[in-house]
Write a structure and sequence with these properties.
This protein has 353 residues and is α/β, with parallel strands linked by helices. The protein has 14 helices and 8 strands. It is elongated and about 80 Å long. It binds phosphoenolpyruvate and manganese (II) ion.
Length: 353
């Protein structure tokens, strides 16, 4: 079984004693991650909370090396942070959600890291904007930093309070589609915002095939200086990791006969789907021609409403989700309307010529 990348450590570095206690407990509980995280500079939503220990904390990372002999990652929010992280030999840096939204800051960090070859992990921006996320990764890549990973930490949502930051699984998956080979790590701690539910979100991330987990871990979570509610003890971290049913990445599998058969069946069904769509659009074109001859508008809201409601109901009965049905119908209908309007424009152009 391939285990994904596990990143763990406190939300914030607080003192040398705290770092040491976490390390010793991780070792004792058999919960040593592959990469140790600690926030040194903390971008807080409102002033007055603990804003991080600063440069001094970077020296404490030696404690991690001494006890666990694993690499260390810290968050950098500007060029000065990036320079200090490099100066103190931090192994990996990450860019936080509040920084990813700001292309000026991201560019400044990229310039400061240029030539260092340091791996960079970029958290998703606060808002669900895939381009902004990709843009930040591209700014790193453009200065020659090619050891990149993304972190899905969810998106703030004004209304849905089930999560601290609501996950949006289609976004990390789409990122992996458009940037082949991009590793996407999941951060259940900042998604859930409390201890309960971290296992569930971690399991879902693994089911989808994400590449790792970043879990905030503290020896005394209740008294942590930041994010006290969501941090887990090294013992709980061990339990979480032990309870996850890790899946094998499909790419690593030898071609399996059963899967090959099923995929052939899907290929065949997709061909049928395309034939049906081709036929449907041929009829749409005939309707378009009829509308043109009779000077009718292309879009008719009553008909659209009927199509939408009846097809959605039928789809739901066939165990297709309402959201999927609506998106599918919008997409098909939009294409139909555009085709028919194009027919009108082309006929007009012929008339005028
Ligand atoms: C953090 O990792 O502690 C952090 C501040 O995260 P985010 O940028 O996801 O809010
Ligand atoms: Mn945190």
């Amino acid at each position: 079984m391939t285990t994904p990348l596990i990143i763990a450590g406190p939300c914030s570095a607080e003192s040398p004693e705290q770092i040491e206690k976490i390390c010793l407990e991780m070792k004792a509980e058999n919960a040593v991650p592959q990469l140790f995280r600690a926030g040194i500079w903390k971008p807080r939503t409102r002033p007055g909370s603990f804003e991080g220990i600063g440069e001094e904390g970077l020296k404490w990372m030696e404690i991690v090396r001494h006890h666990l002999n694993i690499p260390i990652t810290v968050e950098v929010g500007n060029a000065a942070h990036a320079e200090l992280a490099l100066k103190h030999g931090v192994d990996v840096v990450w860019i936080g959600a509040r920084t990813t939204v700001n292309p000026f800051a991201v560019q400044e960090i990229a310039e400061a890291l240029r030539g260092s070859n340091v791996p960079v992990m970029v958290k998703n921006p606060m808002n669900p904007d895939l381009d902004l996320w990709i843009g930040a990764l591209e700014r790193m890549y453009a200065v020659g930093l090619d050891k990149l990973a993304a972190i899905h930490r969810g998106f703030s949502d004004a209304y849905d309070k089930r999560f601290r930051n609501k996950p949006n699984w289609s976004m990390p998956i789409h990122l992996k589609r458009v940037w082949t080979g991009m590793e996407v790590i999941n951060d259940p701690s900042h998604i859930v915002g409390k201890r309960d539910g971290i296992l569930d979100i971690s399991q879902r991330a693994m089911n989808f095939g994400l590449d790792g987990l970043m879990i905030e871990t503290h020896h005394d979570p209740d008294n942590a200086w930041s994010d006290a509610k969501q941090q887990v003890t090294p013992k709980a971290l061990h339990e979480i990791l032990n309870s996850i049913d890790f899946k094998e990445p499909l790419e690593n599998m030898k071609p399996d006969e059963r899967l090959e058969d099923l995929r052939r069946a899907v290929d065949h069904l997709d061909d049928q789907l395309l034939d049906v769509l081709q036929e449907r659009f041929a009829v749409i074109d005939q309707i378009g021609e009829h509308k043109r001859q009779h000077h009718l508008t292309v879009f008719q809201s009553g008909r659209w409403k009927d199509v939408m409601e009846s097809r959605t109901q039928k789809g739901v009965k066939k165990n297709l989700s309402e959201k999927f049905m609506k998106e599918l119908l919008y997409s098909i209908h939009e294409e139909s309307v555009k085709r028919q309007e194009k027919q009108l424009r082309e006929a007009d152009a012929v008339k005028k010529a």
